[in-house]
Amino acid sequence: MARPLNHTITARPGRPSTAGWARLMLLSGSLVGLYLLVAVWGFAFTPDQYGIPLVWPATGVGLAFVFLYGYRLVPAVGLAAALVGVWFTGDLVAPLEQAFTVVVTMLATALGTAILRYCRFDPRMERLRDLGLLLAAGGGVSSGLAATVGAYSLAASPGPLSLAQTWWVCWSADLMGLVLISPFLFTLLGGRLVMPSGADLRIGMMLVTATLATGAVAYLLALDLTLALPLSYAVFPLVMYAALRCPAPITSGLILVFGGLALTATGLGHGPYAALGLERSLLALNAQLGLLVLTGLSLTAISAEREAAESRARQHLEDLARAGRINLMGQLSTTLAHELNQPLCALSTYAQASRRLLARGDTEGLGTALERLEQNAHRAAHTVRQIRDFAARQDLAHQVVAPAHLIAGVERLMAPEFTRRGIHLKVNVQPGLPPIRIAPMQIEQVLVNLLRNATEALAGRADGRVRLAVYRRRRELVLEVIDNGPGIPPERLSLLFEPFTSWKRGGMGLGLALSRSLVESHGGTFTARNGNAGGAEFRFTLPLEDDHGDTATYGTSGG
Fold this sequence. Notes:
It is built from 15 helices and 7 strands. It is of the alpha+beta class and 559 residues long. The chain folds into 3 domains: 1-193, Arp2/3 complex 21 kDa subunit ARPC3, CATH 1.10.1760.20; 196-203 and 216-248 and 265-395, no CATH class; 399-543, Heat Shock Protein 90, CATH 3.30.565. The strands form 2 sheets. The protein has a 5-stranded mixed sheet with strand order 2-4-5-7-6. A two-stranded antiparallel sheet has the order 1-3. α5 (128-156) packs antiparallel against α6. The protein starts with 17 loop residues before the first helix and ends in a 16-residue tail after the last strand.
């Protein structure tokens, strides 16, 4: 499911207000102005022998505006296309063909927009799926239709050109113009405009300056081809850094800035590609810029998807913690009853004393008793609030889960922490394990707790290793977490699962008590011991519901 967009993409029904008309005129004027500007720039790179612009960003401008602000801007696309036709080709193309070109241009824009909306394209382009949709709908449909009508018009005019000869040139021009300008417009206008922080602003300005300097050195200085051509690829690390560090508008803006500079310089006869002739040089440059676009936008999407996945993982861990707090209520019931019993008994005592003091008329003693009564009432209320805040959700339903799927989810959750700490995690899951009926979040909580304990035990070790093994033993599933750390202090083994007992600094002594409680609530057992070769071994079992007989032990470590 795509995320909700941060802009309005459908016009409200009814007659537009004065403000609505003003906004429509402003958007239409902006579209027409930008369309004409990039058209003039595109026609600057037109080989005399063909009359075909080898770079055509106008299609991308129309597609971005219509998608972001609604189909009411389609007539503005038609107006801009008509002005371009009259301005540049009015003497060469018949009026009927001009009108046909305008209609197809409007149709191509509307159709590309419809496909993007139907497929839930997100203009922030934070998913690889969105990049693929833009290339398919924009590059395949909008640019394909525009290239077809352009090639047909040229093929129908007197001259040696044929449809097959010109279509691919028109299409590559449309496609390159679209991927250069539309990602910048989509990412800039398609999300919330947030003023970058001082550090981000400085990084952005440094990247823009470095990109312009790279382009100037590679394309404007009279360097030898053997030096200028490799230097033209120096922009790739800059774009890759921006994709991994900066918001999408900065990355797409850098690509647009470098592409515009490189195309302009090449069209004017400068740079490493100029010696090939205008047609061949721009087509060769388009190939380089195409790689730059794919690299930058793909890394941007991958980085955004990774951040979104990490955010979901953090939320999932928080859900696991909440589920753990619910189950911990059983372990804490005795302690909580004790904490409540003391103030409640005191309340009763001071209430009785207050009644006696009131009967004797001892106002001074009565005031003291009432003050103590109020203090204990606040104490009891505070305890109740702690209980209420501690448990925020109800118990979780059991589900049938494949063990391999369960372990894969835990491994994904914990992989970043193991990587950050430099600890190697090895996972062994016996093939063909039958499904089990569990509350997945609770068992995940147990495994996450054990794996985190292992990483803490291995802190500072360069050779830290943890093994998570899952195998079948008769009619139960065995799950083991084994590390090569210092192990469990022998004097602590007998108290390991007691609540509020911990030998770790800052520990509350609740994690293992909760874990054992969760496992036992599933009908399993939980044990811990020190390994023969050092380290700690935690093992718990879960009952299997099927009855397929015994299987060979897999991946055990004894015990």
